[in-house]
Automatic annotation (TrEMBL):
Keyword line: Glycosyltransferase, Transferase
Class of enzymatic activity (EC top level): transferase
TM spans (from-to): none
GO molecular function terms listed in the Swiss-Prot or TrEMBL record: 1,4-alpha-oligoglucan phosphorylase activity; thymidine phosphorylase activity
Lineage of origin: Bacteria, Pseudomonadati, Pseudomonadota, Alphaproteobacteria, Hyphomicrobiales
Gene Ontology cellular component annotations, sorted alphabetically: cytosol
Similarity comment: family membership: Belongs to the thymidine/pyrimidine-nucleoside phosphorylase family. Type 2 subfamily.
NCBIfam families for the chain: ARCH_P_rylase, PRK04350.1
InterPro entries: Glycosyl_Trfase_fam3, Glycosyl_Trfase_fam3_N_dom, Glycosyl_Trfase_fam3_N_dom_sf, Nuc_phospho_transferase, PYNP-like_C_sf, PYNP_C, Pyrmidine_PPase_CS, Thym_Pase_Put
Catalytic activity: thymidine + phosphate = 2-deoxy-alpha-D-ribose 1-phosphate + thymine
Pfam families tied to this protein: Glycos_trans_3N, Glycos_transf_3, PYNP_C
Source organism: Acuticoccus sediminis
Keyword Transferase recorded: yes
Gene3D superfamilies per UniProt: 1.20.970.50, Nucleoside phosphorylase/phosphoribosyltransferase catalytic domain, Pyrimidine nucleoside phosphorylase-like, C-terminal domain
Name recorded for this polypeptide: Putative thymidine phosphorylase
């Protein structure tokens, strides 16, 4: 069997990218002309996967007649140690020409996007292909018709949840505002009214924490569809990671590339959000759009254009959708990073005196807007309902019940390493740079290290004295703390201070 090798697990996590490791002197590499980064088709019984080849030196850890598979490739094949698989050149990706066409400015239709998504899910497109596609779609290079087509193609590639004709509420924040962790609060309030709100959330792409990262501090979020339905039928809502479900699965591949590029495009942002909302069975969706000079959406003009695109695509795919514009000029709450944001959420739910008032107000605004949007909602009455549920403790009780249904509640932990950043002078905090503060939190280890991040000690408008702590860096290791501290010192103007009289 000259085209086969014995499979062994490499135990290497390459996320969703299947990777195979082969000796440079193995007979298949020689016979087939395989080299590093070659795309290789691997067939095992009734399964196959296309993987990227990494070549191992002949004096390395791998036997000459073995092929080691990354965790994702091993799982995709359902491999067992000692299995012998067949290796061959895959057919070229048919959609590569569509990626090139888009790079040269051509418009794509739904069939073109479906071809790209199919090849993405079958790993026929390389990371360079995907990076080229995402870059070609960046900015405003996807028009409204293309965005609708991409959204439909992304939804069609996966499962769509059916809730039996019931109305299903949902909300999503476009991001770019550190600490804006309103989703767990909105879900708790809305579910406490008896409405259905099965919230599937993402992990961070370019931010210090995504909703799923923060929620995972307090409860398990990796639930399959059966567990999701059990939680929602029992409690009316959930906050889980959508990546464990087959909802718009191509989006996870795009996100992996976007995370490396540190950007996403307007059209792909809308397609990503709304394809998952439609796939989750949502019927009524509220989009939270923070606007500020250091937020993701930086101007009123950009907000108007993005809102119009959301509304157009939402209508085209059958969603009742509204956009909520919010203040994106400064971080929300005190904590930035999964555990610190979880602590803020709990402080609001528990009605603590130290709870961040801005996070509470934002959550109430969003819950009110969503309740007004819901079937039977009376415009203007949602705010009073939301406040009553939060102030009475009903929202807290519902949140804890959801956590228990998802697998059990846990209190957030504190980081073992903390460094304070002092004010260089006295005065009044006039601005906070969202991007710099988010970067400090990420350098400290967030979101990978759940306890890492930034704890703000002041807000815009506060008067400070020289040497007073402005914020704390929280880290799991001294190296990460020092790394974040160096960057913070280089960007000491992240918190602008309007100097007053001495």
């Amino acid at each position: 069997m000259s085209d086969t090798l014995i499979l062994v697990p490499a135990g290497i996590d390459t996320y969703r990218q299947p990777v195979v490791y082969m000796r440079e002197d193995c007979h298949i590499c020689r016979a087939e002309g395989f080299a590093s980064q070659t795309r290789v088709r691997i067939d095992l019984r009734d399964r196959w996967v296309i993987a990227t080849l990494n070549v191992v030196a002949h004096d390395g850890w791998l036997a000459v007649d073995n092929a080691a598979l990354s965790i994702s490739a091993w799982s995709a094949l359902g491999a067992r140690p000692g299995d012998r698989a067949r290796f061959s050149h895959p057919e070229p990706a048919g959609s590569a020409s569509k990626v090139r066409a888009k790079a040269y400015g051509e418009r794509l239709n739904e069939r073109d996007f479906a071809s790209i998504i199919r090849d993405t899910l079958e790993n026929r497109l390389t990371d360079l292909d995907l990076a080229a596609f995402i870059t070609a779609c960046a900015g405003n290079r996807l028009d409204g018709t293309e965005t609708v087509a991409l959204t439909r193609s992304m939804q069609a590639a996966g499962e769509t949840l059916d809730w039996g004709g019931r109305s299903v509420l949902d909300k999503h924040c476009v991001g770019g505002l550190p600490g804006n962790r309103t989703t767990p609060l909105v879900v708790a309030i809305v579910a406490a009214t008896g409405q259905l709100i099965p919230k599937t959330s993402s992990r961070a792409i370019t931010s210090p924490a995504g909703t799923a990262d923060t929620m995972e501090v307090m409860a398990p979020v990796t639930l399959d569809e059966r567990a999701l339905r059990r939680v929602v039928e029992a409690e009316g809502g959930c906050v889980i990671w959508g990546g464990a479900l087959n909802l718009s699965p191509a989006d996870d591949h795009f996100i992996r590339i976007e995370r490396s590029l540190d950007f996403d495009s307007t059209g792909q942002l809308v397609a990503s959000v709304l394809s998952k909302k439609a796939a989750a069975g949502s019927t009524h969706v509220l989009i939270d759009m923070p606007v500020g000079v250091t937020a993701k959406v930086r101007s009123a003009e950009a907000a108007a254009a993005l809102s119009a695109l959301f509304l157009r695509v939402g209508e085209a795919i059958g969603l009742r959708l509204a956009v909520h514009l919010s203040d994106g000029t400064a971080p929300v709450g005190r904590g930035i990073g999964p555990a610190l944001e979880a602590a803020d959420v709990l402080a609001v739910l528990r009605r603590r005196a130290e709870a961040p008032l801005d996070l509470r107000a934002r959550a109430l605004d969003l819950a009110a807007h969503l309740l007004d949007l819901a079937p039977g909602g009376v415009p203007g009455e949602g705010r009073a309902r939301a406040e009553a549920l939060l102030d009475s403790g009903a929202a807290e009780a519902k949140f804890l019940a959801i956590c228990e249904a998802q697998g059990g509640f846990a209190e957030p932990k504190l980081a073992p390493h903390r460094i304070e950043l002092p004010a260089p002078c006295q005065g009044i905090i006039s601005a906070i740079d969202n991007r710099v503060i988010a970067r400090v939190a990420k350098l400290a280890g967030a979101p990978r290290q759940k306890v890492a991040g930034v704890l703000l000690r002041v807000q815009v408008g506060d008067r400070v004295s020289k040497g007073q702590p402005l914020y704390e860096i929280h880290a799991a290791t001294p190296g990460e703390a020092a790394w974040a501290h160096r960057y913070a010192e280089q960007h000491a103007d992240a918190l602008s201070i309007a100097q007053g009289p001495r």
